[in-house]
Amino acid sequence: MTTPLVVSELSKSFTMHLQGGIRLSVVKNASFAVRAGECAVLGGPSGAGKSSILKMAYGNYAADSGQIIVQHGHELIDLVTADPRTIIAIRNSTIGYVSQFLRVVPRVSAVDIVAEPAIAEGLAPDAAREKASTMLARLNLPERLWQLPPATFSGGEQQRVNIARGFITSHPILLLDEPTASLDRANREVVVEMIGEKKQAGTALLGIFHDQEVRDMVADDIIDVTGFAPARAA
């Protein structure tokens, strides 16, 4: 079994500019690996650093130190030291991401938003839109909404667009930040099925799930991030 994502001695702090430049350490020496075909879940209370770790794994946050080694094609790339062009290339073909919130260009239809990552991956536009339509139908988004921009959609509808966009590609690594938070039970079950299919296809998944029931159904490994908490002064 391959290991496409390896995190070693990863640390992150933030500078509080409105508080005299105080540096707040949030993650210290995080180390773990995510294997192909498995879903690893970041566990721990709110504020423990789960989202920071996930954002570093996508290149949204810069790490202070450590390594995030990604299998990108036939190369091993360290995201901590990778340049922006390399990070964009990795996002296009290696790492997918489902965030808590949908951030898209206004006036772009839901089906085109979902299709865009598949087109970036190399799928023809018509085939990508057909695949996007299939994903939206599976997630029970009404067809009358597919050609509309999702800015006016409900939170649950926007999240289904977000999930379809993240799951449409065949990226070998998929990051999930609370993908079921705004969903009803029926659509949570669909997402659990989709996660299972990704695992069967050999995708390595790293996620945050506050829903205990969903976490229990999808997790192969739970990484307790409290073990990466910085020491606090007494």
UniProtKB/TrEMBL annotation:
Organism listed in the record: Nitratireductor basaltis
GO molecular function: ATP binding; ATP hydrolysis activity; lyase activity
InterPro entries in UniProt: AAA+_ATPase, ABC_transporter-like_ATP-bd, ABC_transporter-like_CS, CP_lyase_PhnL, P-loop_NTPase
Domain ABC transporter: start-end pairs: 5-233
Family: Belongs to the ABC transporter superfamily.
Coiled coil: none
Highest taxon of source: Bacteria
PROSITE patterns: ABC_TRANSPORTER_1, ABC_TRANSPORTER_2
Designated name of the protein: Phosphonate C-P lyase system protein PhnL
UniProt key word Nucleus: no
Keyword terms, alphabetized: ATP-binding, Lyase, Nucleotide-binding
Any Pfam family: ABC_tran
